[in-house]
Amino acid sequence: MTIWPPNKDSLRRPAYRSLAQSLIDAIEAGEIRPGVRLPTHRALAYDLGVSVQTVSRAYDELSRLGVISGQVGRGSFVRSGRPDTRMPWHRLGGSDDVIDCSMLVPVTGELHSERMSATLATLADDLPGNAILSFRPRATLEAHCEAALGWLARCGIDTRRDQVLPANGNTVAMTTALMTAALPGDLVVSEEIGHHTLKSLTTALGLRLAGLPLDNEGIVPDAFDRACRTGAVKVLFVLPSGLGPTAAMMGGKRRRAIVEIARQHDVWIVENDALGPIQPGRPEPLFMLAPERTFYFTGLAKCLLPGLRIAWLVVPDTMVAAARTRHLVTNWMATPLMAEIATRWLDDGTAETLLQWQQAQLSRRNDIAARLLRGLPYTGSPNGMHVWMRLPDPWREDMFVAHARNNGVAVAAGSNFAISDDQHHPAVRICLGAGSEEELERGLSVIARLVRSPPEPALLAI
Fold it and tell me: What is the DSSP letter of 37?
């Protein structure tokens, strides 16, 4: 039985999304090869018995995803290369009228624009030459590393300047850490519901990946120990401080147990702390419990400003040279101009001001979530950027996401964060940072109503 073109009866509502997904499935199954020309909008609409508008919206969606490309006068063609179509956020067009609770972003406001404008104006008058002229990573960023030590201390990290590697965001730091700690074929373990890009990244690096069972504090120590005893685990990738999809905060006792198992089996630890000091009263980072085997990274994009793409990877003493080499061959250096902005903010108190503002905003938004979602099966944290909502029967994730989207709210399906193929309880991640508080209230009210109601067929015109 072929996947493409689909039978009209197999299309789910909204039909255009189902039609787009059927093409993606056909590509991934090898039924359609790159370069294939697709039917015209009118021809496919006629064959399927749907409207031309439905086909047009499906092709538009596929184009935004990078699956197909259109050429004027020639038609639409399947692009080469496998697109990454399983992202947790919804790719929203400019005309979409939706409250976006699908993407994990900090709250932003006029304060951010004002501070950045003032900093850029100052830079125009006294821009250091090495911020735009230098190719020497260590010499150019030495002062920046010194300034970063104070922020890292704010995150609970006590380290030396030479162990700090500036990077263009958390993703670069994460990639460098994994490339340094593991070789192709090595086994990486992580939370079974974990970082949404980890699966694609480990595949690209030639690493094997397995998920570990979770409880309300994150990874279960016995499960980690069993994995180490039954396979040669090389790296534990972990989100211990509320950043993971389930918003689990790992307690101090649990952290010490995880570290002891890692030492016993000689496993490297990669600690993702992208939220940094957003969460008050956090237990001591894993890096401080096991600095000899932990790669720790944090940055400013999640906790201060999305466009401030700067992060710091703190490396075990014995791996500094290896990490620098891998960063050099893949990224060379963090962008000096971005590092210069971050350094000024760290030195003049702007970073601390924006951090306190962010904490206050997230506290208010979590209070809104607690009020509107009271009595529902969700988990969150006091200053977290999202909540994790378990869906009651008979809701399915795809059904709930579609219903929410039809009601003007975008949320992320839990399956986007699944590390292994094992079944997990249906759930969605609901992010709290985007939009205004009024929009968040409306969005959460829709979600609460849907969770409390039995699913009904989505009534959209085909």
Answer: B
pLDDT in tens, 224-254: 999 999 989 999 999 999 999 999 999 999 9
| Contact present, 86 and 421 (Cβ < 8 Å) | no
| Residues 6 or more apart in contact with residue 276 via CB below 8 angstroms | 151, 154, 155, 298, 299, 300, 302, 303, 355
310 by Cβ neighbours in 10 Å (0-12 / 13-18 / 19+) ranks as: buried
User: pTM of the full predicted structure?
Assistant: 0.81
Query: Which H or E element spans position 263?
Result: helix 252-264
Cβ contact 357:139 at 8 Å = no
Contact of 221 with 261, CB cutoff 8 Å: yes
Among 351, 336, 377, 367, smallest CA distance to 432 is for 367
Q: Per-residue DSSP letters for 282-343?
A: PPPPHHHH-TTTEEEEEESTTTT-TT---EEEE--GGGHHHHHHHHHHHT-S--HHHHHHHH
Strands (E), 119-202: 164-167, 187-191
Angle between helices 110-126 and 336-348 (to 10 degrees): 110
Question: What is the bridge-based pairing of β-strands 268-272 and 294-299?
Answer: parallel
How far is 305 from 296, CA to CA, in rounded Å?
20
Q: How many CA atoms lie within 13 A of 453 on its CB side?
A: 13
412 CB-contact burial (10 Å; exposed 0-12 / middle 13-18 / buried 19+) = buried
Q: Is 68 within 8 Å of 62 (Cβ atoms)?
A: yes
Give tens-digit pLDDT for 316-363.
Answer: 999 999 999 999 999 999 999 999 999 999 999 999 999 999 999 999
